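hey can u check if this looks right to u? its 301 residues, i copy pasted from the old doc so theres a chance i mangled smth
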Amino acid sequence: MRSDFATGLSGGCELLASIVQISPSELVKRRSTERYGIVAESIYAPARTRIEICYDAHVHLLVLYEDGVRRDGESSIDGLPPSTLRHLANKMAFVPAGHAHREWHETSAPLRVTYLYLNPAKLQKSIDTNATYVPRTFFEDPTLWATAGKLKSVIESDQPESMVYFDALANVLAHELSRPGQELARALPATRGGLAGWQKRVVTTYIEDHLEGRLPLVTLAQLARLSECHFCRAFKKSFGIPPHAYHVQRRIERAKELLSDRANSITDVAIILDYSSTSSFTVSFRKITGQTPTEFRRTMT
């Protein structure tokens, strides 16, 4: 894998150090693909493991946390305060070339991450030479996420005719990454018609603190200072799903975390999350994950 990465970009042996270092290496699965001077790497770490991650190179790094919950851990990038965020799904981080990135995780649910290693020379061709890149940690940007996902798909597709499309995506990605964070924050609500930043924070925090039992829609709407109808439309615009579906998904993520501790029986988890019965919990869990709680627990062995 490392030799593939090194031959994919200019710089020879020096770029062997440009890949994210993970230890213990035997605990993770890694797969990387390189095309046109950009490398996409998929990382998988199982639940109930502790890993340490280190990155410090002359290549930009865009991190897409596709899934993952950690029982404990910390993430830091040079120039930013460290974060101990536990629920990592759908978050991103950007590490500009020359910045050090460190994090450690004690996972309570499997961790799936995509790393995009972005050659600065490749991106610089796409934007103004005076553009600057700033570090960002655990942010959400659906537009950037979608662009990065498309770029990864093109890199992994290995289709010669995709060169023009690849260049167009790299162009868009370069512009989106070089936009100041404040500009993004101002632009997203206007273009998406969703909740403002403070509304998302207060609502999601409340949901995380009330995963057990029912969650009245009127309460969430009041927190966002909107009518129920307006709130539902804005919430779905921001998160892609209605408030109830989001609450159910977060509830099941909490269930996964609890199931990772074998001291908790499946009945215990159902009671903790205030399901009316173990069977109703099993039905809900299977609907979201495609597995019963017992089947999910087997995959963690």
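The chain has twelve helices and eight strands.
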